[in-house]
Amino acid sequence: MTETIELGDISIAVTRKGIKNVHLSVHPPHGRVTLVAPTATRLEVARAYAISKLGWIREQRQKLTNQARETPRKYVNRESHFLWGRRHLLTIVQGDCKPFVALDHRRMTLTVRPGSDAAKRAEVIHEWHKAMLHEEVPPLIEKWERKLKVDVRCYFLQRMKTKWGSCNHRAGHIRLNTELIKKPKDLLEYVIVHELVHLIEPAHSDRFIAILEKHYPTWREARAELNELPLTAEVWNE
């Protein structure tokens, strides 16, 4: 059951779980605030804790407000597109053949049939992004399956509006956001590690943090970098 704390213009969704410490989070892109507390925590206690952290909450929300956002892509010549954290200039070539994308240093060349619109061009690039991720993801999963002694039965790539990844621990499945192709590769690895740890501990509990700390001690820096990078231009629904 979720309850809500109202602090002026800030609404905080409160849930209780079998954890030892309170976890307060401000989520991109719009600053949604959640508080996860130990099972026996009274709402008045959770409220007092939230009030004590009000300055921090406002600071985090302001960071999200100031965070750079990508302008909507038009898929035209000399437009900037990011790949593994580096900017590439797009070149459009028209040809009567199956659409494809090629890389040459910092240039991304998209070959499409004459008359293709922005939606079709976006679709071609998205499928290309998925193909590249399918090359990078399996070796990383195998590496961390061995380290964490877990078994990933299947992974999926898809556009995700509010998360970089998710895990169905019962089925042994993980999902990864295709937007990760635009971020540095080490951040893709961090997200994969994060989701694989959920196969051991489903909740964001103290145990989860301890496992992540042990196996990926720079996770806080990776998370901060991921959240500081430009947000996609897509309208996110929370």
Quick overview of this protein structure:
The protein contains 6 helices and 11 strands. It is α/β, with parallel strands linked by helices and 238 residues long.
Task: Please explain how this structure is put together.
Residues 23-228 form the YgjP-like metallopeptidase domain. It holds the Pfam family YgjP-like. InterPro entries: UTP_pyrophosphatase-like, YgjP-like_metallopeptidase. This is M48 family metallopeptidase. The protein is an alpha/beta fold and 238 residues long. It contains six helices and eleven strands. The protein has helices spanning 43-52, 54-66, 118-148, 185-197, 206-215, 219-228, and strands at residues 3-7, 10-17, 23-27, 32-38, 80-83, 86-94, 100-104, 107-112, 154-158, 165-168, 173-177. The strands form three sheets. Strands 1-2-4-3 form a four-stranded mixed sheet, with helices on one face. A four-stranded mixed sheet has the order 5-6-8-7, with helices on one face. Strand 10 (165-168) and strand 11 form a beta hairpin. Helix 3 (118-148) packs across helix 4 (185-197). The longest helix has 31 residues, at 118-148. The relative contact order is 0.12. Residues 233-238 have low confidence and may be disordered.
